[in-house]
Amino acid sequence: MEAVLQALSDESRRTMLEALSAGPVTAGELAALLPIARPGVSRHLRVLREAGLVDVRQDAQRRIYSLRPEPLAEVDAWLSRYRALWEQRLDALNTEVTRGKRERRSTR
Amino acid sequence: MEAVLQALSDESRRTMLEALSAGPVTAGELAALLPIARPGVSRHLRVLREAGLVDVRQDAQRRIYSLRPEPLAEVDAWLSRYRALWEQRLDALNTEVTRGKRERRSTR
DNA sequence: GCTATATGTACCTTGATCGTTACGTAACAA
DNA sequence: TTGTTACGTAACGATCAAGGTACATATAGC
Q: Do residue A11 and residue A54 come from a single domain?
């Protein structure tokens, strides 16, 4: 959890996760997306690996990374302790759509 | 968003948010909860303030902090781009409760 | 074996961050 | 006004994170 939020706090790493959400990508392809040099990407990938957010599979010289979204569910679970609070506030602002929001909330 | 995730990446600050989720708290009370000295707490509070996660109100000498959960909704929105991915995986593990999960997911 | 390709690691530098102690400030209380 | 309480800020040292360059490793192809 600590490691996951730490990993998510970096813009480059979030960009990498977004790219990975479309499917497996090699380290080189990820590096091409970012304004930093490849060794930096390698280190970011290590952080993501240690946070459990990616899996690696080797294919010849290539390392193919894929997203492992489970740790994000932990973040979501942590966040859910606050969800009621902000939804309450949003409801106060948009009272005209209260009925729809209440329906949705009741199923969580 | 950047500032919010940055703020959330620290354990002490998350502890402060948790305390604040029960209601407004003074800076001193927050400091008492943490293993660090008050000046450190003050700086953490500044980070939370700059991320928009807390509001301050002055009451005589005291500064009363209250949680402002709206920025957490942004994090939730970012996270929601991945929610389908991890729910898919969890469903694969717990196929027996698929019906309940699918109901919930369809309303998000 | 030799070279090219793909990637990670080591090492260095710079800038941010965390905590501490010391100090400044503002509001009450006597 | 003097002291006390409750904060914040400044300045400092230590640690950490992010980037780059240079190098090591491993696989594929010849």
A: yes
